User: What shape does this take?
Amino acid sequence: MTPPPPRATRTDAVTNRARILAAAGEALATSSGASMTSIAKQAGVGVGTLYRHFPTREALIIELYHQEIQKVIDLAHTLAAEQPPLTALRRWFEEVARYGKLKYGVSEVIHAATNGGLDDKNYEPFLNAIAVLLDAGATSGDLKPGVDPQDVLLQLSVLWRIPPGEGSEARATRILDLVLDGLRTRPTVP
Assistant: This one.
């Protein structure tokens, strides 16, 4: 006897899941202490619906992390194809900074769930996204050749240590300026 085919996910369940993830992204970017109840309320769903999709706070954070990081990874390829190298890198760094707001305060959960990053399925694709942008800049002569994407990732990791609130965006901009300045090629001074 063959098992019955899996049931298709109902449209309202798909919609509710998307609303929960969107609300969680907004709530956690504002406060790492956002409760599951407040996220459910913001998403316009009941707490039971939230828990059917995400049985724990950690499960919600990890799914949100995977969704958001994939958007950032995909954007690198799009920007590299459509923008001049320095513009592409700057715009991508700005998106990484936006993502850093989400990660602030929940990084411990992500770190624990991915075994300190060792089990993170997004690690290599994220490094590859950095490499695509660095290679485009090195090819154009705008960026130093041979920069290790892991070194750039380490520099960018400071972004998810910036506490949200007044001055956080200005601080992220200053840090990105420093990182970009360090990556640019310089004319040789005689």
Summary: Residues 160 and 182 are 20 Å apart (CA to CA). The mean pLDDT is 84. The radius of gyration is 19 Å. The chain has nine helices and no strands.
